[in-house]
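Lay summary. Proteins are chains of building blocks that fold into shapes, and those shapes determine what they do. In this project we predict the shape from the chain. Here is one chain we studied, written as its sequence of building blocks.
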Amino acid sequence: MHPLVLSLCALLPILVVALLLVGLRWPASLAMPISYVTAVLLALFVWWVPGTQVAAASIRGLIISIELLYIVFGAILLLNTLEASGAMNQIRAGFRDISPDRRVQVIIVAWLFGSFIEGAAGFGTPAAIAVPLLVGLGFPAPAAIVAGMLIQSTPVSFGAAGTPILVGVNSGLSSAANVQAVAASQGGWNTFLAGIGLKVALLHTIAGTLVPLAVVTLMTRHFGSNRSFRDGLAVWRFALFAAFAMTIPYLLVAWTLGPEFPSILGGLTGLAIVVTAAKRRWLLPRNAQPWDFPSSAEWPASWRSPLADLDSAPRDNRAPTVPQHSAFSAWLPYLLVALLLVLTRLSQLPFKAWLSSFAISVESIANTTISYTSKPLYLPGTVFIVVSLLTCWLHGVSWQATRTSWWRSVTTLRKASVALLFTVPMVQVFIYTMGGSAGYDEMPIALARGVERLVGQAWPLFAPIVGGIGAAVAGSNTISNMMLSLFQFDVGQRIGVDPTWVVALQAVGGAAGNTICVHNVVAASAVVGLVGREGEIIRTTAPFFLYYATLAGILGMCLA
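And here is the predicted shape, written in a compact code that computers can read:
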């Protein structure tokens, strides 16, 4: 089969998602089963992959789906517990003390706190924390989801203590002799990998400059009374200041310490600087009213989250104690989450090894080479559940209120389960199409080769888009880097440009691809109980992905 035709075939499952989910605005619970069937038919009758391999990939996807649902459940439970204890009221009051302006609040929670959580845990955890927190503060659910998706760009390449670089790029490149030769000429493998990480950080620092401004302008345009970009642009000085407060430390850390800590330390440093500036109203419009959403009574039904209605729940479903907390007591659960995520993700500490030692392995699924190992204690969902239980004890939540919180969380989760239970298996079938009797490359590589044939020497311009599509399909920058880093390196050598820059472009595009990843959107929507509107979220975030990937590609054309 001609490579371009094969590439088009590999694109079909993605086109089905784009048409049904984004174009026709079908809910993911209907669109993703059709996309899954498309991927299965292509695997069986174009790639001629054995049926047992397709079944094994599907089972692997179901296991990963259950893990994602576990993480989402923990995030919902934490928010419900904070609402039941009354702590969320104090958190709302604390943000009003920092700034009543919603534009400032979204920058602090989504961009800065979200970047820190991404650096500590990765794997979509920022959305699981920041999105429900924003809803708890009174944001419309779609606004919170869009904000949580957009910030999963700049910090993602160094998420989970550098996993997309240290695991994704590393495992994608380390077995190739031509890469080893280049690494040896640059001072060894560690120096080579750190150099790619620094290039990634530099590209992100430039492209990430406009992320906070994009978050606030999209928010004011789609969810403000005036539906105006101008309301967001009014805080452009503060938004740029918040961007640099995170990205400059982020770049310096990548340069001096390597790939593990840029997002963690960049997010923490930015939080300290920007919260101080917000309290003093530095760089904010003078003599202007703080910007807010319309009254919640005027919101359309599509803006509402069932979790946002918890304040109207009967008092007997709450803790029997008076729900008054100090700022420290109210924020303590989130501080514990952040602390536990950092302590359990750093390989320099023993906790990661301890938690990872409890593993459930499924080897040779359906008698194939496909396997999967689950580490339930290491998943962020375990941290969320442990902190939720501790919060019940620390805040004196009654047994009845605790039971109500768990039931609400299960009910909310159930609505999203269908979409995730088809989305992730589709991804796994898409990825595991190697070794078919047709002799073709697996679908992601076939798709990338088709793009290469079309663009030739202009490849650096398109390398981030390919990486972004890989992440959007796989649901992970790490997986995208594993699949495509060697391909990107080889293309760089073939067209005569520095291949390490091309790999860096892959990693940057893969990070940006998280903003349009279907199962990330489904998971973020599920956390706040808003399912069935995933296509609208992606329609809002897709232009941002194109901006980010295109700017990175232009920089790549200049630098590579």
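What the prediction tells us: The chain has 24 helices and two strands.
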